[in-house]
Amino acid sequence: MLLQPFHGGVRLPPHKPGDAAPAPQSLPLPPELVHPLPPPGASGACAVTVGQRVRRGQLLAAAADARGAAVHAGSSGTVTAIAPRPVGDGEATCVVIATDGRDDSAPLPPLADWRELPRERLLERLAVAGVVGLGGAAFPAAAKLAAPGTILILNGAECEPWLRSDEALLCHGAVEVLAAAQLLAHLCRATRVLLALESRMHGARAALQAALAAPGAGGVELVAVPTRYPVGSERQLIRVLTGQEVPSGGLPRDLDASVHNVASAVAAWRAIVHGEALTERLVTLGGRGVRGAGVYRVRLGTPVAHLVAHAGGYTDAAARLVLGGPMMGQAVVHDAVPVLASTQAVLVLGADELRAAAPERACIRCGDCAAVCPAQLLPQTLLAQLREGELEAAAQQGLSDCIECGACAWVCPAQIPLVQLYRDGKSALQVQEDERARAAQARARHLARAARLARDAAERVARVAARAPATAPAAAQPAATAPATPAAAATTAAAPMDKAAVLAAIARGRARRQAAAPAGREDAP
Amino acid sequence: MTATLLAAALLLGLVALGLGALARRAGADVDLAARIDAVLPQTQCGQCNYPGCRPYAEALARGEADIDQCPPGGDAGARALARLLGRVPKPVNPAHGTPGPRVVALIDETTCIGCTKCIQACPVDAIVGAPKLMHTVIAAECTGCELCLPPCPVDCITLVPRAADAAAVPTRSTA
Amino acid sequence: MKAFAVAPAPHIHAGRSVTRVMGHVLLALLPGVAAQLLFFGPGLLLQLALCLAFAAAFEAAVLRLRGKPLLPHLADLSAAVTAVLLALCLPPLAPWWVALAGMAAALLLGKHAYGGLGHNPFNPAMVGLAAVLLCFPREMAQWLSPLAPLSLSPSELFDAVLRGVPPPTLDTLSSATPLDTLRSLAHEGRTLAEIRRTPLFGNVGGKGWEWIAAAYALGGGYLLWRRVIRWQVPLGVIGASLLVSLPFWLSDPDTHPSPLLHLVCGGLMLAAFFVATDPVTGATTPRGRLLFGAGVGVLTLAIRRWGGFPDGVAFAVLLMNLAAPLLDRVGPPRPYGHRRAGAAP
């Protein structure tokens, strides 16, 4: 198969010794599991109460909306609290379960005859089982699979250093992966199934080829893509495999393609064939700051501290705790946070592995960032524009096409935190867009009101004219002027305002509220 | 001599062609007022001394108004106007008001007497109510223009920070 | 519970720094320095020492005035690169005040007046060179005959550079540069074949100069290999000067020097790999860089042919520095997922 190169990208030190990933190790059940609920305000309601006994896979909260996912208990036990707990770099309301060690589960009925079942039924099952993308984005699989694609791409290219969870799955669960591929191909109505793995993954390739040789397996093309960060990013992978580019602001479905992480595919397969809700994932533990590096099978909700303690504990070198890969992962303050579906890895990096805390220097416009940018942007130009507050110009240059892969910041000799800057720029852009949408709405309402006032005035004039035909000449004059332009009507409606009157009214209101507050009649905001 | 003249003519011709192409790319001025109106915040507050955003935009297009008369747009809005009109950017003139956080009107429902005066004043029909019945502001539609404050006979309307801004900081990690 | 310090992603780094980039440039200049030493004697060492010392002094003084930390800014080696580039362009026996004036113009006017490294629109070394070319035309025109200065004694050398007293044998030692000679003899109506027979010229270009040019190209190759510079600028400079001089030479090889002669004489090779490739003052888009390099090449040749100076590298670079922001707007790359320009929906 002819592979297309993608622009830019960097070769990162892999930190992955050996040809094959180690077999996933199991962890003892943690005494406590922490499951974050959908954000407050979303309609997903908590389905359990404090003190209730739950079993593994039992629903804790239904999906809030199409972009949210159902949450299930990671093991059996008692709900001890529903309270805010640290999650990632923030805080969220969580269901806390004290495990009882029995680990009995509440499986859904298996749908072994999935080939005969309607597609909607299977998608509904995926939503109920809370299957989300395990490649880092944690987007609900049901929503993603709802759009069919003739090309199904299974993404096994984890291009970030240290990360080996998907590789471990391919090495040691090749048969499951191929079965999951058939299920997803059925769901997507795909005619072509590609399984992308890195050229570096010799062990995984051998395991998959052996599994493909078995009777009944097949229909899957193995493609070894070059190990070049960020080849595992959806857009870059599509470019490499198909030579096409996902349109800016679009989705893979625009190219009739569907990309799924291999671990998500297996989770979907297990949800349908075994009726298992998503309650565990493979997590890579790595970095110089921790002992027992490897791949672990971890229940969702397991505190990071538990994982680290059972793997072997911290070393003296531990300097930073990162959830996810070293390029896009999130540094967290402490290890009391739980492992989530998006947690591909727990890295405890030593100071010598981290980027030096060198002070930021002025950009020397070396252009290295542009050379490595997989979105083919000009990061140095964006930097200048964002620093100047030229948000629109940056947007025009394609700020929103930035995939935040971090290649520019990785290579920057001036140590400029470029990704952070682009993230801030993007959120400022979002605020601006919201503001513009509000303005458009206000404009529409204002025009509608002006039109209504004009119509009312015209009708009034017409009524007067009809009632007194004798005085027609007298009424004709206002009739000629009244149904003027909407703008003119607005002018009369909102007469030039008296600023002093407004200020006086505000002052009066404030004085009145202050007077009222001691009386306790109302709660002044 | 002839060569010099020829070269000069050629150079001038090239410059003329280039400038012509640039001018074509800039596009003819279809409706300047509409493009100005598009960057105004549409609060319809009248702080610019014009009765609404569109009249201000038209005044700007005619060259009668200055770019620093729109406090709700803030300094960023004045910058956008400056860029659009090719004028020198300047901050908002404090004579028209000081830019601040976006606000919405809130009617103290216990005090409201149902006089409908504020309903008539609202430029975007964001207040609902009927005579002798309590009124309320549709917060999502309110532009915070303050035009409802002066007509209120009982001073029951206050301005509060827009709730959407406060609530728009969800915890990122739960996604 | 263990606490950790947090920082935004990415958490790892390639380990490149401004210091390292400048260090590579200095390293890549070594072959050129060695070749120039070989042909024009140890005067270059004195010039290097002077320029580096002035650079350190000016940097320290200005950083102090600007209230900036001294060490990190000095340690980025950018001033050292400027100093070495300027020293390479000074005649080996030029008196010390030429280096002083050059470095003052380079660092004070060319760099810090605009806010320091990264903010300067003009290449500092070329600002310095242009300044001394304009202020000291006689000193700057006085180059030495290749290999001749090796007979100078150290005391004569020190007298010439540090006290401004030329050695008694100056007339036998010194000569104009090949480009100067070319120019003045061509004005006298000599044909190129005659000029090329003067002892100043070697097989390809000026005697000695051709080897120095080759040494610069070698250093440039190193920079390309280390990815400190990109291929667009050198290709632009060399390609454009070859392309422009070729038709002239083909039409009349007696009055127009060959493309190769142009390339190996004067500062064109130095400019192609070390000056025009200065990222701060050049264009940053790939296409812009190609145009930038081509502009430097064409302007250099134009100044050599019609201008008032034998070599126009400094002025060509400064002129193109002016055009760099404009060049950056020429055809920015198409971002991923965008249609090609013109094919807008």
Q: Oligomer, anyone?
A: heterotrimer
The low-confidence parts of chain C are none
**Secondary structure tally, helices of chain C:** 17
Portion in helices of chain C: 55-70%
- Residues in β-strands, percent of chain C: under 5%
Helix content of chain B: 25-40%
Secondary structure: number of strands of chain B: 4
Query: Which outline of chain C best applies?
Result: globular
Q: Helix- and strand-based class of chain C?
A: mainly alpha
Could you please describe the fold and organization of this structure?
The complex is a heterotrimer of chains A (525), B (175) and C (345). In chain A, 37% of the residues lie in helices and 17% in strands. Chain A has helices at 119-128, 141-145, 165-172, 174-188, 202-213, 234-242, 262-273, 304-311, 368-372, 379-387, 391-396, 407-411, 418-467, 472-481, 486-493, 499-519; strands at 25-26, 32-36, 53-54, 59-61, 71-72, 77-87, 90-99, 151-156, 192-198, 220-225, 257-261, 280-286, 294-299, 318-323, 330-332, 345-350. In chain A, the strands form four sheets. A six-stranded mixed β-sheet of chain A has the order 1-13-12-16-14-15, sandwiched between helices. Chain A has a four-stranded antiparallel β-sheet with strand order 2-7-6-3, with no helix packed on it. A four-stranded parallel β-sheet of chain A has the order 10-9-8-11, sandwiched between helices. The longest helix of chain A has 50 residues, at 418-467. In chain B, a hairpin with a 7-residue loop joins strand 2 (127-128) and strand 3. Chain B has six helices and four strands. Chain B has a two-stranded antiparallel ribbon. In chain B, strands 2-3 form a two-stranded antiparallel sheet. With 175 residues, chain B is mainly alpha-helical. Chain C is mainly α and 345 residues long. Chain C has a domain at 17-175. Chain C contains 17 helices and two strands. Chains A and C meet through strand 14, strand 15, helix 9 and helix 12 of A and helix 1 of C.
